[in-house]
Amino acid sequence: MSLVNLIDLPVLGDDRGSLVAIEAMDTIPFEVKRVYYIFDTKAGVSRGFHAHHQLQQLAVCVSGKCRMRLDNGQTKEDVWLDSPSKGLLIGDMIWREMHDFSEECVLLVLASEHYDEADYIRDYDEFLKSVNQ
Ligand code: T46
Q1: CA of 116 to the centre of ligand 1 (A)
Q2: Which atom of ligand 1 is nearest to the CA of 111?
Q3: In 3D, which of 57, 123, 49 has the Cα closest to residue 90?
Q4: What gap in Å lies between CA 19 and CA 38, rounded to an integer?
């Protein structure tokens, strides 16, 4: 099964332009407790490099693009987030890295839980140990 779980977000366009609505437990399979966005990422900077014990997220580049690398400890897959109608679902215990941010990139993330540093695994060897045990 692919690590890349994309959702085609419906664009409600009319002659004024475009609008995307994301509904909890409908467009995405979780309730949203937190929203954050990453922008102004400096040239050449990569982010992420961690996994979560228990967190569902939807990531969308609402402007610009970046490359997301997903890794379950056995397989790595890359996907470009390059459209405001392309949502990437990321579940538990997936190592994620974000690379190649374009200058105007705004990466919007909807998350199923409040921020909790204890939910992060930031050490790759520890991640591999957890997923392979
Ligand atoms: C993820 C990827 C896609 C908070 O205080 N609250 C928050 O909700 C978040 C997300 C972060 N922070 C603080 C923690 C750090 O001091 O903001 C700082 C930067 O966070 P971090 O280094 O974890 O950012 P990224 O870009 O490496 O990862 C983020 C999310 O943390 C992560 O859950 O999946 O984006």
Answers
A1: 10
A2: 33
A3: 57
A4: 20
- Tell how far CA 51 is from the center of its chain: 11
User: What is the residue type of 115?
Assistant: Y
Our measurement of the distance from residue 111's CA atom to the centroid of its chain's CA atoms, rounded to an integer in Å, reads: 9
* Domain 5-131 superfamily per CATH: Jelly Rolls (2.60.120.10)
Per-residue pLDDT tens digits for 101-112: 999 999 999 999
Q: pTM for this structure?
A: 0.97
3-class state of residue 116 by DSSP: coil
* CA 23 to each of CA 9, 17, 62, 90: distance values in angstroms, whole numbers, following the listed order: 10, 20, 16, 17
Mean pLDDT of 6-19: 96
